[in-house]
């Protein structure tokens, strides 16, 4: 009986430990990158409990100390070659960047490089050595159970990803993938994968429907069916994750979980990137977060949710490339949300963004005469108070029909309790999640933008205690949890 109880206790610990989480990537390519204490204040206000950094910057790790936030740190690509060629370089890296901060800063994972195979192929031959050397250094410091080692892969190395059951890793990389998967399996780590349905959709030339990329509900006959497994896919994300499971199974690895290290959608793009919009970004990220936290899992492994880091916290204005590259963020440098996610009732992460606000605007390109007629109707029979549109009033500028109609439509829509059909106006109006307020012209329903504004109210760096070399006490219960965890994973995957 006692044994049974112990077992039940361990299982519940395992279950808690395996809860899928939503994390956020923190890129720092901003011209006015907030101070680490401001970053941490934003994370706290937004209840973000898991972050991934692209390096192991000491000031950031110090600011994250004693916050309870779980941290994935990275060895940047330019250091992978050095670490993979020398175990003493690896050992030094661990003592300088990990041992110096753990456990005050709860580092849970070390990501070796970023998409090394596809962006830095000359480091590929030493990539597995880098994983092993870093792991050995953790082992020597008794940290190998707390801190996992892996390397984020681009999903482009998975070929023939639809149907997922036929997916396989680009065979040129088998000499790296096989020992890598052996390493991940034997150390209880996970396969890190970057998944970008946005690019899959963009590159598919219309083959992938936008709704399928955005997790929007599809009619059952529109779902993609894998003819070999008869599994139904209703979104690109699940199909990619299952493709990774099948690609691993093809190499006989069936018990390595997948962790998605990057996924997101840009909120703005150039003229050749028409689907990089605020609405699409909001829809994708909101649906992704709900999907992960709901533990829906994938068709191949239902109920096994895939922890995912959203790309990314801030818009990075210094990024080169297309306009969309600078616009993947959830927030601007001030900590103001780019859009308010639709997350009501989905749990606590990004809980400030629960306003779920919608607005009614004039459709882009709508016929001016029809807009004018709808505007006249709203301000007349529709009983909207249109006085703010008068010359000299808050919403007079910009003085054009579309802007004035948007004000009238939105006011009417909110007055009617956002009831279905109240944002149509003969087809010239549409619902959006973007607050059309500008200057002193405030729209009904706006006001969420201030909620998470963070302005350096956190203590300055100098008052934050710096953790010196931390001592770590080995606890034997952790090892038994790991063993049970492995057993449970294998049971799920059989
Ligand atoms: C590094 O490798 C050498 C030779 O392969 C070995 O003797 C040494 O113990 C290793 N050092 C560490 C810290 O693993
Ligand atoms: C660090 O994170 C791990 C994994 O989520 C958790 O089990 C552990 O309790 C955390 N440690 C501290 C000190 O918060
Ligand atoms: C597979 O990887 C090799 C080596 O990077 C690359 O040259 C080749 O184009 C890839 N194959 C496909 C189909 O992407
Ligand atoms: C996978 O296992 C099967 C059965 O044991 C074996 O025939 C096959 O060669 C293995 N494939 C690889 C890639 O190791
Ligand atoms: C969560 O998952 C359940 C089934 O697993 C489903 O019925 C429900 O609609 C999902 N909720 C959301 C918000 O996706
Ligand atoms: C949030 O938005 C969804 C759809 O976008 C809607 O079904 C739901 O009723 C909204 N919830 C609230 C509290 O407004
Ligand atoms: C936002 O905050 C500023 C300063 O705290 C305040 O003046 C302004 O009225 C707020 N705006 C809204 C829409 O709540
Ligand atoms: C933000 O901080 C700056 C500098 O400390 C200050 O000048 C500014 O007024 C603050 N803004 C708000 C809205 O508190
Ligand atoms: C921290 O202290 C140093 C030296 O005492 C000072 O130069 C620096 O401005 C301080 N930084 C902050 C953020 O207060
Ligand atoms: C608008 C809103 O809900 N703001 C809240 C965001 O979260 C912080 C911390 O939890 C609260 O203090 C704010 O009131």
Task: Please tell me about this protein's structure.
- By secondary structure, the chain is an alpha/beta fold.
- The chain folds into 2 domains: 16-354, Glycosidases (TIM Barrel), CATH 3.20.20; 357-472, Methane Monooxygenase Hydroxylase, Chain G, domain 1 (Up-down Bundle), CATH 1.20.58.
- It has 15 helices and 15 strands.
- The chain has a 9-stranded parallel β-sheet. The protein has a two-stranded antiparallel sheet with strand order 7-8.
- Helix 4 (77-85) crosses helix 5 (87-99), helix 4 packs across helix 7 and helix 5 (87-99) packs across helix 7.
- The longest helix is centred in the last third of the chain and has 18 residues, at 476-493.
- The chain is globular and about 75 Å long.
- It starts with a helix and ends with a helix.
- The model is unreliable at 1-17 and 447-494 (pLDDT under 50).
- The structure holds 2-acetamido-2-deoxy-beta-D-glucopyranose (10 copies).
- One 2-acetamido-2-deoxy-beta-D-glucopyranose (NAG) is lined by residues 45, 352, 451-452.
- GO terms for molecular function: glucan endo-1,3-beta-D-glucosidase activity.
- Residues 358-443 form the X8 domain.
- Pfam families: Glyco_hydro_17, X8.
């Amino acid at each position: 009986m006692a044994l049974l109880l112990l077992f039940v206790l361990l299982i519940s610990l395992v279950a808690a430990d395996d809860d899928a989480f939503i994390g956020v990537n923190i890129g720092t390519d901003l011209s006015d990158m907030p101070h680490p204490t401001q970053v941490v204040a934003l994370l706290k206000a937004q209840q973000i409990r898991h972050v991934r950094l692209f390096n192991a910057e000491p000031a950031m790790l110090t600011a994250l100390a004693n916050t309870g936030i779980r941290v994935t740190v990275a060895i940047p690509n330019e250091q992978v070659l050095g670490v993979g060629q020398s175990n003493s370089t690896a050992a030094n890296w661990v003592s300088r960047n990990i041992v110096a901060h753990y456990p005050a800063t709860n580092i849970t994972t070390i990501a070796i490089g970023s998409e090394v195979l596809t962006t830095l192929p000359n480091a590929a031959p030493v990539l597995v050595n880098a994983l092993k050397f870093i792991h050995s250094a953790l082992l020597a410091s008794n940290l190998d159970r707390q801190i996992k080692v892996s390397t984020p892969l681009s999903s482009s190395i998975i070929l023939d990803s639809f149907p997922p059951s036929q997916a396989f890793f680009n065979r040129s990389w088998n000499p790296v993938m096989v020992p890598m998967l052996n390493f991940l399996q034997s150390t209880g780590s996970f396969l890190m994968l970057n998944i970008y349905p946005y690019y899959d959709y963009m590159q598919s030339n219309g083959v992938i429907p936008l709704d399928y990329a955005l997790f929007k509900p599809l009619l059952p006959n529109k779902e993609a069916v894998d003819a070999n497994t008869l599994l139904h896919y209703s979104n690109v994300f699940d199909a990619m994750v299952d493709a990774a499971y099948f690609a691993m199974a093809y190499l006989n690895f069936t018990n390595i979980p997948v962790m998605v290290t990057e996924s997101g959608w840009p909120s703005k793009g150039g003229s050749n990137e028409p689907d990089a919009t605020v609405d699409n970004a909001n829809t994708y990220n909101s649906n992704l977060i709900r999907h992960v936290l709901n533990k829906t899992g994938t068709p191949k492994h239902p109920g096994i949710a895939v922890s995912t880091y959203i790309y990314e916290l801030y818009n990075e204005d210094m990024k080169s490339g297309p306009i969309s590259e600078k616009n993947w963020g959830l927030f601007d440098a001030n900590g103001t949300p780019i859009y308010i996610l639709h997350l009501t009732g989905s749990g606590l992460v990004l809980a400030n963004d629960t306003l779920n606000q919608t607005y009614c605007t004039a459709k882009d390109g709508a016929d001016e005469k029809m807009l004018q007629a709808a505007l006249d109707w709203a301000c007349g029979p529709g009983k909207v108070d249109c006085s703010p549109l008068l010359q000299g009033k808050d919403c007079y500028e910009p003085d054009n029909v579309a802007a004035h109609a948007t004000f009238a439509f939105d006011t009417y829509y909110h007055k009617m309790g956002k009831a279905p059909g109240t944002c149509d106006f003969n087809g010239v109006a549409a619902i959006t999640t973007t607050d059309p307020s500008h200057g002193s012209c405030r729209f009904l329903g706006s006001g969420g933008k201030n909620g998470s504004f963070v302005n350096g109210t956190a203590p300055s760096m100098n008052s934050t205690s710096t953790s010196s070399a931390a001592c770590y006490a080995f606890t034997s219960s952790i090892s038994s949890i790991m063993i049970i965890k492995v057993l449970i994973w294998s049971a799920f995957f059989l």
